Amino acid sequence: MSSIILAYVDPSVISYIIQAVAGVLITLGAVAGVVISFLRKRARKLLALQQQEKKEVEEEIVIAEDGDK
Fold this sequence. Notes:
Layout: H1 11-46
């Protein structure tokens, strides 16, 4: 015995569903970003990696005025 159920879905309900799905996806992306950032920071700390080693340090530039010769 099969029964057919027909229902009307209002367009505003579909709009709410799309907004809810988008909100969940954005939230999951934000949480994933925070977790990845935390894990990277923790890994650097545990492995004693420092970012300063990779950076080049330039000499300080001194600009003399007319009276300073």
